[in-house]
Every structure is written in structure tokens, then in C-alpha cells.
Amino acid sequence: MKKKLLPFAASAAILMGNGFPAAQQVDTKNMNVLFIAIDDLNDWVGCFGGNPQVKTPNFDKFHANGGMVMADAHAPSTVCCPSRTALLTGVHCYKTGVYGNKNKLKRDPKAKDLVTLPEYFSKHGYYTLSMGKIFHKHPVPGQKELDSGQWAFDEWHKTFPGVGPASKKRPVCGVPNLPEEKGYHRIGFDWGPTKVNDEKQMKDYKTAVWAAEQLNSRDFGGKPFFMAIGFSKPHLPWYVPQKYFDMYPLDSIKLPKTLADDLDDIVDKNGKPIFRKSTTWLRMEKYGKHKEAVRAYLATISFVDDCLGVLLDGLARSKYADNTIVVIWGDHGWHLGEKQHYGKCTLWQESCRVPLMIKVPGLTPKNKKCYGVVNLIDLYPTLVDLCGLPKNPKNDGRSFAELIRNPDMEWRYPTLTTYQRGNHRIYDGRYSYIVYSKKGGEELYDHKTDPMEWRNLANNPEYAAIKERLKKYVPKTNEPEAPRNEISGESKREMAKKRKRVE
Fold it and tell me: Is 93 labeled as catalytic in the residue annotation?
């Protein structure tokens, strides 16, 4: 659900609400970093205001205790692999050619030698360790173990096994598997309670417990640490204990607002519609499952909120509580029916906007929201800046450490999101401009008057100057797609067997 765009402050306040000076001079050099990734989480978090129904007490507690909400943060791409690759290498997708989940970083001649964020911290004296999904996972021929970015950390731990649903029937949600979508249920567009009603048995919860234990039992060789923890929920399938579904009675669920003819004004260069209502949206409509899907997503968010609480409480109990920068980020947004779409993979606001929170001890104020426009690709140079490390000249992003120190300052640098080759979105805090290279279509939205992106202004002559201004930031060249995963013949046969079993 959308909320109205709030105005930027014209200038920095002399004193913030908690008594901290507007431009803090806190020494953050060599602080530890706790880097928390949450897969497929959109802005449906209490302190972000994306959905008033959601229950996220631990996110909200973190916000109340100095976890600053970056309220206008965006993804470099709206797909897991390219978004994470851009964040972790500091280089945009259009330069590396990593446009999809099958593009493998270590097979990409333009990206394989880039020093990733954890490698950079290790190179400059940090002890780095990880558990959970940080890099996107890729198969390796002849090996059972996936390439999950093990090579990027001093210490890497395989995550715990997951817990399946209580029902043996698939799909659990009760929506028949349409013939043209046989593949989609294999990647899990499904929901339902798990076979255990104990969150402590879940993979993400165990990961949180493990991380909390590390923080309370180790000194990391006397070095500052960079700990990366990845939670897999609310990524599909939405299988969580029944108690989380019970938090959201079905008859109380409110659906995101939609417009029946929303997609009609998005046309190609020949005036033909570019988009149709997605097949998944039509299935939810046909079987009356919109409320159940929204409920399941909300339930899964509340589950991961509990996991986050375990980890943050562990940090609070440790000796590192006062010298650890905490970053919480989602890799892209997610549609729950908005613009007749479910999922990611669009250049609309619901896919592009991400939850991003940062706490710097002694620096970030309590209950503070910052409305400067930032991008996940900016995290690499920002953390390098905060921790006093030398700049990496290959970073495309812009450090917003200054904005963290002075969150009310004006910060209106346009930001870029890419989906597949040649399709880009430029957003400047008020307007978003979208261009599709192959079909020649354009979109332009004024988020001040149209936060739901219902009125495409791209062909309105009154907005021609704004469109031309934003168009200047669209990349002029786009690298060819990077090499995809190498799959051996044996691997292909194994995958075929798995598909047959599912079908």
C-alpha cells in the first residue's frame, strides 16, 4: 500500500528531537558492521508505513532505539541476483551485464574481478563472516554445494535446512496449477502453515540464534568484524507456523488499492499496450485468493520480524552493542496486487522501493525518518566512508554518510533502477521516469499527486521538460548479458527428475 510522499526539509535543523546536534562528529572509524539482508521484503513494515495492518514490533523497536528509516530508498534492480550483485560489487547492472538470476558473477568477465563489499572490508583489516543468503545462489557443475559467495568471506557457514508445510498436497493454498504455469509452483507461489508450529525450528530463526551466539562468545581475533546475516523470508513460498497466520484474521485483511484500467495508458511506440494483468493476479482473482495471499505475506513478515528481534537482542546483550553499525535492507520490493501484479520484476514503485534502516551508535537519532533519495548501490561507499576505509574508485554509488549525520539536509540526487537489459527507471524524489528499450514505451509519474502511479504523464506535453531532464540520467549504453550458470548434462538430468516429481 502506498503512502503520500512527504516533503523534504528545506534546511537542517540546529538540534534534532533527541538532542543530538544536526551534524554529528561521532568517530565511526573501525566500527563493527552487522549487515542484515531480508529477501523479498517490501515496505510493509510498521515504521515504514507501507501497510497499516502489519505487526512488526522488533523493526519498530529498532527504529525507536536509533535505527533510522531511510524512507526513500530504492533497489538497483528488481530481481534478486542483479540487485544483490550491484550492491555487493558497487557497480550498476548495465555495466556488468548481470540482469537476471541466472547471470553468475564469477563467470562475468566484467565483474568477476571486482572486489566485493565483504572482501573490501577483509582487505582493510576486518574479520568477515556470514550465514544465510547474501549473494544470490548459483549451481556449480559436479558439486552439490551451491556457489553462495563463500569465497567472499573469511568465514562462511551453510544455512540450516528449511521446514516444509503441514499439508502434503501441493499447492497448499488451493489454487490449481494451471498448465501454462507448471513451472511457477516449482519456485513456490504457495502459502500455508508449516508442519511444526514452533518458530524456533525454522531456518531463519536458527540463523538469528546462531548470529546472536557469535556476538556473545567471540572476539573475532581482536579485529573489527563485518557480519552478514541473510533471512530467506518473506521470499516464497510463504510457509510459516500457524501462529503467524492467526495474527491476521482473514476477514480483517484490507487489500491494496487498484485501478481497473491502470495499465491502459502504458503503451509502446506504436500505441499498443505493453502490459496485461499478470497471470498470477488473474488466478488470485478467479479463485478469490487476494486476501489469503496478502494475509500470508503479512504472516511471513511477522515471522521474520521475530527472527530480527532475536538477532538484535543478541547484539544488545553483547559487548559490541555500542560500537556496531547495523544495516537492515531488503533486496527489492514486492507487489501484492498493485498494478494487477504479484511479485517483483517491474520498474514501478512497489518493486523499486526497498526497506532500508541504519543505526550508527551515538549518531542516528531515535524515531527518525530520513527522506533523502538513496539506492542500495550507495551502501558500499557509505559503509566504507563511515568506517574510515579508503574509497573504492570503482564504486558507482554515492556515499550518503553525510546524510546519516545530517538527515534533514536536502538530498535529491536522482537514482537508477534497471530491469533486464535496456529498461531503466530514474527517480528523483518526486518524479519517476521509466523507459523500455525494445518496445519504445515510456512512463512518467508525479508521486506528489499520484503516489499509486495511476496516471502516466509521459505523453503529456506539459511534462515534456521534466521528462527530458530525467532522460539525461538514463544509461546511454548497456552491456550485453553476462554469462549464465554453467549446468552440466548430469545436472540437467537431475533437474529434469525433480521437475517430473513435482509435476
Answer: no
- Of 80, 93, 307, 370, the catalytic one is 80
Is the pLDDT assigned to residue 140 strictly greater than 90? no
Does residue 48 belong to any structural domain of this protein?
yes
For residue 255, being part of any structural domain is answered with yes
Name 103's bridge partners: 484
The whole domain housing 349 covers 32-502
Residue 23 lies in a domain: no
List pLDDT tens digits, range 130-139: 999 999 998 8
Tell me how many domains the chain contains: 1
**pLDDT score recorded for residue 177:** 66
Catalytic annotation, pick one of 74, 136, 235, 335: 136
pLDDT of 1 strictly over 70: no
Mean pLDDT is lowest, of 177-191, 244-258, 431-445, for 177-191
State the CATH number of the domain containing residue 74: 3.40.720.10
> What is the number of other CB atoms lying within 10 angstroms of the CB of residue 159?
18
Domain presence at residue 5: no
What's the whole-model pTM score? 0.92
* Residue 378 near residue 400 (C-beta atoms within 8 A): yes
In this prediction, residues 240-265 reach a mean pLDDT of 97
Annotated catalytic, 80?
yes
CA dihedral 81, 83, 85, 90 (to 10 degrees): 180
**Residue 474, CB-side half-sphere exposure with 13 Å CA sphere:** 18
Distance CA 400, CA 379 (A): 8
